[in-house]
Specification:
The complex is a heterodimer. Chain A is α/β, with parallel strands linked by helices. Chain A has 13 helices and 20 strands. By secondary structure, chain B is α/β, with parallel strands linked by helices. In chain B, helix 4 links the parallel strand 3 and strand 4. Classes of the chains: A alpha/beta, B alpha/beta.
């Protein structure tokens, strides 16, 4: 099967150019000024459109096994494809957790059989995510894991995290940390003037940065690589910037809601539980700091922290409801919004959504539009806008604070491994 | 004219709204002194007390207020109910609403729970305390008591002392007295104040003597028993030493200062028991004023709904 994408502007992490792309089977066969339509079985006429390398999401929750009513590997893959993602990592806070070879292998195989986008399970750091004993990293790696994380329950013992960092090196597994000092985080929203006004139990802004400081020091001490998940606070970015200057092996991600929303939006929306997320939405200051760090590269990538919840989990008062929001279908548009606001360039979007995550994960055949690489491509129309409504959401769960919002940029085609897996 | 369908808090009311409620309460104040302690204002209306958190005083006060207005009253408490079987608070409210309820009086341990439920019902909602957010009728009865005693509500120095960060009574009083043009002072150890109170219209001090100096109104809050185990204060002894009201401290206040407490008082913790005889009449007066204020609120909401 040969697909020709004709007339589009290609967005690389460092430049844009007008070129045609010929996909042959699962690889990018040719990138060139003009490729004849006769060389292809199918031609996508894309003049005026933009092509990115398939997006890579380092942080999703697919709720499988355990809460298949909230998301399945299939529905998650379809949501990813609609959002332009061709490779996604799913976190191990499932029931049972992904803490052994069998479950990790099962997720990898089932998702390969589904074959829409590439799903890599993230293994746990500790058995049952209990923070007591290391999980079998070797077996997890063999089952297809690229990374390990205890996600929502960060490893509390600094000694255990040290051992995990040391041990993971042997398998070149990436350690992803949900940096949160739990004793400072017993709340439901950011500790702020708004939490004080409404008497809401609150999460201190330093609950994140205190933990980030520890992770940085342990990454330094063990000379390991460590990836910080969903960074949301200005103070954390200061520490990360400093660590990067010191050449410590740290990388980090943020999520679209942290550069699109602030704690004020919770009050504006009468404490609707769709605005409840952990880490909590930050101050306007945090939001601006994140935008700046995305631009400067202190933040390496944009991940979604796609967290599906059933209707019931969110149809509760703010204090009672579950944390988390879905994100796969909106991440590109929300990122592109920053281009429209002249905060980022298209190239930076390509870098943070494709190029750098591929580098961090060591996925050498992805993250770029280059001859010989895997044919993971997204074609977008940047002129068009769309409105988020419940019916249009592909994910099994509909919990998003962006319901009713008009967003710029529409994904028209997603090609994963040479196959058209989504077409508007 | 009162036009609001709900009373969820005082933060979004203004001076006129508060004056309207207190004026109406003034009218209802004399009803208990009549031979027949009842008026027909809410006849044929149904009031449901939805209490998802245990309460005796507030519930009784609301129940009596509704009954004296001739409403039919149902009391719901979550300890013996469907909530125990896992029914959500919204479903509980919706099931009740099916019986054509006119007013829900809601108490819940979660902040802004009243806001959540009010947005999802056609009936009127009175917040009878939600988490650490607001307890508007408590503050209204405090203001009513002050007005009764001092004949005015503006330009006063109002001091709130104690367990403030976790107190809905404190928040409603801060909003209420500030709307009326009073100067509100907060006095508590930093651990019981929270970091972001400076965003509210208040002045803050850790020195009770300074707070009480020339004060017109002193609102003492109940120190919840678990504060010591929550690492917020080292001991009741040290708390009493710095934040307990006693005759000596009280000398600094104005002679006619109104001392209030939402009850029940931890005697010899936040207030010295030697002040009991002096303060108790005022606390009981608060209780009877509470009834009048709650009658006023139910009456005004019903009027707005019609």
């Amino acid at each position: 099967m040969k697909i020709l994408i004709k007339g589009a502007t290609l967005v690389h992490h460092d430049r844009t150019e007008k070129k045609d792309i010929l996909v042959k089977d699962s690889t990018i066969a040719k990138v060139s000024k003009k490729i004849s339509s006769q060389e292809a079985d199918e031609v996508i006429r894309a003049s005026g459109k933009f092509v990115f390398a398939g997006f890579i999401d380092m942080h999703t929750h697919l709720r499988t096994p355990g809460r298949e009513d909230e998301e399945t590997l299939l529905s998650g893959a379809l949501a990813a494809a609609k959002g332009g993602f061709t490779t996604i990592l799913c976190m191990p806070n499932t029931t049972p957790p992904i803490d052994n070879y069998e479950i990790a292998f099962w997720i990898r195989k089932v998702s390969q059989n589904i074959g829409i986008v590439d799903i890599y399970p993230v293994g746990t750091i500790t058995k049952e995510r209990k923070g007591k004993e290391l999980a079998e990293f070797g077996y997890l790696k063999e089952a297809g894991c690229l990374a390990v994380s205890d996600d929502g329950d960060p490893v509390a013992s600094s000694l255990l995290l040290r051992r995990a960092l040391e041990y993971a090196k042997m398998y070149n597994l990436l350690l992803i940390s949900h940096a949160e000092e739990k004793s400072l985080a017993a709340g439901v929203m950011l500790e702020s003037d708004i939490s004080a006004k409404w008497g809401m139990p609150a999460i201190a802004e330093v609950a994140e940065s205190v933990a980030v400081a520890r992770e940085i020091e342990l990454a330094y001490f063990t000379a390991s690589r460590l990836h910080l998940a969903h960074i949301s606070r200005r103070r954390s970015l200061r520490l990360i910037e400093c660590a990067k200057k010191d050449k410590i092996g740290i990388s980090c991600e943020t999520c679209p809601h942290y550069f699109s929303l602030s704690v004020k939006d919770i009050e504006r929306n009468n404490f609707h539980a769709n605005f409840k997320v952990n880490p909590p939405l930050g101050t306007e200051d945090d939001k601006q700091a994140i935008r700046k760090a995305l631009k400067s590269g202190v933040i390496d990538c944009i991940a979604t922290d796609h967290a599906p919840h059933s209707f019931l989990e969110k149809e509760k008062s703010f204090q009672e409801a579950s944390f988390g929001m879905i994100g796969l279908e909106f991440a590109f548009s929300l990122s592109y919004q920053l281009v429209k606001e002249k905060v980022l360039s298209l190239e930076v979007i390509a870098d943070r959504l494709s190029y750098r995550p591929a580098k961090i994960l060591g996925l050498e055949e992805r993250g770029e539009i280059r001859e010989g690489l895997r044919a993971d491509l997204v074609i977008v129309d940047l002129e068009k806008e769309w409105v988020v409504d419940k019916e249009s959401i592909v994910s099994r769960s509909k919990n998003t604070p962006f319901l009713g919002r008009k967003l710029p940029g529409v994904v028209e085609y997603t090609i994963s491994g040479g196959k058209i897996v989504y077409k508007k | 004219m009162w036009q609001r369908r709900h009373l969820l808090g005082l933060k979004d009311l203004d001076k006129k709204d508060i004056e309207l409620i207190l004026g109406q309460a003034e009218y209802f104040r004399e009803i208990p002194r009549r031979q027949i302690k009842k008026v027909p204002s809410l006849r044929g209306k149904t009031v449901v007390n939805l209490f998802f958190e245990p309460s005796t005083r507030t519930r009784i006060s609301f129940e009596l207020a509704a009954k004296r207005l001739s409403a039919d009253v149902i009391n719901f408490s979550s300890s013996a109910s469907s909530i125990q079987k896992g029914e959500s608070i919204l479903d509980t409210l919706k099931n009740m609403e099916a019986y054509a309820v006119d007013i829900f009086v809601i108490r819940h341990s979660f902040s802004a729970a009243s806001v959540y439920l009010a947005q999802r019902t056609k009936a009127c909602v009175v917040n009878a305390g939600d988490g650490a957010n607001e307890h508007p009728t408590q503050a209204l009865l405090d203001m009513f008591t002050v007005k009764q005693r001092l004949k005015k509500l503006t330009g006063l120095k109002v001091v709130v002392v104690g367990d403030i960060a976790y107190s809905r009574v404190a928040r409603s009083n801060i909003w209420g007295f500030s709307h009326m043009g009073c100067e509100v002072w907060l006095c508590a150890p930093p651990t019981l104040l929270g970091r972001d109170f400076s965003a509210l219209p208040v002045r803050i001090t850790y020195d009770l003597r300074k707070a009480v100096k020339e004060a017109d109104v002193i609102i003492m809050l109940r120190l919840q028993n678990e504060r010591q185990s929550e690492k917020l204060i080292p001991s009741l002894r040290e708390y009493r030493q710095h934040f307990g009201l006693n005759p000596d401290i009280l000398k600094g206040a104005r002679r006619d200062a109104v001392i209030m407490h939402p009850g029940p008082v931890n005697w010899d913790v936040e207030i010295a028991s030697s002040l009991k005889e002096k303060i108790m009449p005022s606390i009981l007066n608060q209780a009877s004023n509470g009834l009048a204020v709650r009658m006023a609120v139910l009456y005004l909401l019903k009027g707005a709904a019609e």
